[in-house]
Amino acid sequence: MTDVKQFNGVTLAYLGDAVYEVFIREHLLGKNITKVNELQKQAKHYVSAKAQASLITLMMDKGILSDEEIRIYKNGRNAKKYTKAKNTSVVTYHISTGFEALFGYLDITGNKDRVVELAQWCINEVEVGEADDRKFE
Fold first, then answer.
1. DSSP secondary structure string, 10-67?
2. In this model, does residue 7 exceed pLDDT 90?
3. Residue 133 binned pLDDT confidence (cut-offs 50, 70, 90)
């Protein structure tokens, strides 16, 4: 197994972005959406920085995360970033980076069941309307 200590929060977020995105894409394809434009429009509700910031905030509010997962999220959120936020505030971008870092960490440490559990939780929250990305810029 890879030594996760060698990766900073931004590196974990790089992986986590892909891990979560693939999960969401597979979910949307499972809904028999066949038009790419519609797939991309729907995916935005799950994978945009605003959506991810809303979801991780909801996870924290509902006590979904372990202490270790909160630590990983905060490391990702607080990590020095070398890219600029696009279409969102810097704060929202930092929060979403923490969200992605958590997924990257869980994936690279082999905790695939937890990735599935959290990704499914996120899907459910988006689909029942609990995750409200409107409070994030």
1. HHHHHHHHHHHHHHHHHHHHHTT---HHHHHHHHHHHHSHHHHHHHHHHHHHTT-S-H
2. no
3. low
- Which residue has tokens 């990257």? 104
Residue with tokens 């490391």: 75
Instruction: Give the model's pLDDT for residue 83.
Output: 75
C-alpha span between 88 and 106 (Å, rounded)? 26
d(CA 60, CA 124): 16
CA separation for the pair 101, 90 (Å, rounded): 16
Residue 111: strand, helix, or coil: coil
Residue found under tokens 């690279």: 108
Q: Is the pTM value of this prediction over 0.85?
A: yes
d(CA 118, CA 134): 21
Which residues are marked as active site?
17
User: The dihedral of CA 16, 87, 50, 56: what is its sign?
Assistant: positive
